[in-house]
Specification:
mainly beta, 5% helix, globular, 338 residues, 16-stranded antiparallel β-barrel, 3 helices, disordered N terminus, Porin, homotrimer
């Protein structure tokens, strides 16, 4: 057994997070309620290996090899056939110029989404994350309500450039090769900006996505009826001390008659050793002459810190979708970082 | 490369065990002998990550993420399509009240079985473990002799409660959600007790199993012709110094006409720097009007300790089953914990 | 997070290597060019766990659990359905007598190949490695140009013996069980020798291969039309200081009318903080009355060391095959060990 304190001169760090909750879930349109133990009530569970080497002259080499997993049953990844290092698998160089990395890493849509809603990267309870990223009636991708943002939260085969911070402003430029022989026009491109200055935070992203992830199987076309998506997103947050407010707005358009507009509002209120969290998101979907479809998701919860790296939480969610029964969900969980 | 001694202030421990042996195996009914290098002659090989955080006031957060693997060919898990963290994937809180954990962890049948036979958790040579857990003619589950205890040695989607120790007596309560939408009646429940006091040790477990593991695929019905199993088990051990004796008895019944009764005896005799091990188990299976089937397995071996965490062993086994040719197996292996 | 310096008293080491490059690849016969980010430009990316325990009296217990992965997309292994610990999964004892290990480990063909060409174990740019190990038109194994050396670079279910060093000379003896029930004649056997003395290095290997790896699926027969391959290989290197030269020659024969002869030359020239690398390999394949087929691969590159464990590289390759269009490839990458 290996066990050691954080120290200098390191070449690799083993870290991760285990998040599991007991609850009963019913998303909009679900035929029945499903009670169970699930993974990732507040953060998708992960583990992995990271390291930084100081090369001198301000230059550093960095790598990340991290895996999502399901803390309730030990399954690799987030869904069937997800890859081993589904979270990160990249290596790069950082210096005064910023950082360049090669491999699998964050998509441009990810940080703006998770940093500008009070539930972070909860793929079970964050209204914004659910509408952006989690298709209803999974795994039958688009049979009820496909997620609005294409291309996954991580991109494979990617060159990513992160700028230095300019007074709190950083930008990330993303390019993913489609790796289709003789067809270099198939690729993903995107960028985001993040600005943090005292109580104020602002963000935006744009992407043009033609390639699915983590592997391009099934292709976007087969899965959702389109071959290209363009998306733009803006978000802001302000911390008043007694409460932090969040607001976002985004729009996706496609090479077919399909357009989503998503707006979200969030609130985080310090209370005792924890925070009361509340959030709402709605997506309006129009597809040609078909009637507009609206999804509305509302979550309230309380997240109580047992330590800097362990918290327990309780969440309540209501999920509505035009033409389907609404569903209520709740969960009681524990999240532990290591 | 990271390498470090065991120390305090830790947040994660990397540990595991590699067990491989060269041998020639022929279980009852096998058409031929198979020579090879195999994994887990005495203990199923595993590796993983564990950690404990002291939260103050006697409260601790614990997590375990551990994987079975095959040390002979590097394959993940114990069998095809086993999961990544097939051994453990859970997080919980421990204190004066005992411990509550969420996720994948031990089934109630596991500790009573492995702590009350001299071969521990040998899925290759322990007569009791083979008859409880390893179907003959794997992977065609029940074509010759299905294992007698259902639901795997680990349960997913589980809430587990462990009591504090009351003078050497601890109990574990297990509940596994079946996570079938709109059908909360499908679940696994079980409990065990373990008592250790000087030379004497006693145990018992009970379970009612409707859900297969690690994932409910295939379902119990499809695999073995029943939808529910009830099992009870008792066991005892006594260490006379010159030898430790073990005895167990268990019975399983089902929602169809199928009943197994298994009895086992074991012996462990210190000899030199090692131990002579001997064990016998027999299972009588009755299924309605069909003639009773009896399986009898006998193993003798020697386990020699090279250090506290490395040993070498030699095993000889005879396996009989009503209506089939008996088989003899032997193995010579090394087990190394880290 | 765990992070620690290399120290004594250890029981497990976490280590690995991440190698990713951006480039555009076109092997002989490819219909088009494929631009992308790929893994393992110079070394196949891997991570894993290793340990050594001093048992006293010169005896040591060793284990290795290491995994290949693809640093561009996070996929496990080197190709679809590769295993978790595809690189190594073994345990053994070492002492004055040498070392014996059980499990999955190096095949006899591996070290002679990678230590006697200037590109090491580059499965993307080393002419010798490509012709030995990487079939063209992967994954349709033999449709254009099957690799010449059978049985993978690692063998599962193996007993391996390594001699002590006799004045710079060591030998490895390899035996892999085929684990076919009732058919112990199906197995792999092989051996190699390695000699290092000042500027001179020499090597040879021989193998007779009947079992595919990492698992015997598909069998050799189904994949390439033969059931047995015999191979012998010789190689040498000499370091003149201003340049190191490499040369190899090998021949494979089969139980059908198929014979490959491969020759390679290599050059490594120190230049600045790096090395200029150049290599050429050609394989002549004769299959009965069919016209001889010749594959010729040439690579030049520059590998620049940023530190002892991080380098950046640029590679250019030309690949020709009788009857097909030649292809040119290039890559620019970074390799980082940890």
């Amino acid at each position: 057994a290996l066990a050691a304190p954080a120290m200098a001169q390191t070449s690799v760090t083993v870290s991760g997070l285990v998040d599991a909750f007991a609850g009963s879930m019913r998303y909009a349109g679900d035929a029945g309620r499903t009670a169970g133990v699930n993974s990732g009530g507040l953060t998708t569970s992960w583990f992995g290996f990271k390291g930084t080497e100081d090369l001198g002259g301000g230059l550093k080499a960095n790598f990340q090899l991290t895996s999502f997993f399901q803390a309730d049953n030990g399954v690799q990844g987030r869904f069937p056939n997800d890859t081993l290092f589904s979270r990160d698998a990249n290596v790069g160089l950082a210096g005064n110029f910023g950082e360049v990395s090669l491999g699998r890493g964050l998509a441009p849509n990810f940080l703006p989404m998770i940093l500008f809603n009070p539930f972070g990267d909860s793929f079970n309870f964050s209204p914004l994350v659910l509408q952006h990223q989690v298709p209803l009636l999974n795994p039958n991708f688009s049979t009820r309500f496909a997620s609005s943002v294409a291309g996954d939260t991580g991109w494979s085969n990617q060159i990513k450039y992160t700028t230095p911070s300019f007074g709190g402003l950083t930008a990330n430029l993303h390019y993913q090769f489609g790796e289709a022989a003789g067809n270099n026009g198939k690729n993903n491109v995107g960028a985001n900006v993040l600005y943090f200055n005292g109580p104020l935070s602002l963000t935006a992203f744009y992407h043009k996505v033609k390639v699915n992830n983590p592997l391009d199987t099934p292709t976007l076309q087969a899965a959702a009826g389109y071959a290209e998506q363009k998306a733009w997103f803006i978000g802001g947050g302000y911390d008043f001390g007694v409460a932090k407010l969040y607001a976002t707005y985004d729009k996706t358009t496609h090479d077919v008659a399909l357009e989503d507009k998503t707006a979200s509002l969030g609130l985080s209120v310090p209370f005792g050793a924890g925070k009361i969290l509340a959030g709402y998101a709605q997506t309006k979907r129009s597809a040609g002459a078909a009637p507009e479809v609206k999804r509305q998701t509302t979550t309230v919860g309380y997240d109580y810190a047992l330590s800097k790296r362990t918290d327990v939480y309780a969440m309540l969610m209501n999920d509505k979708l035009t033409g389907f029964d609404a569903g209520n969900s709740f969960g009681l969980g524990i999240r532990h970082g290591f």
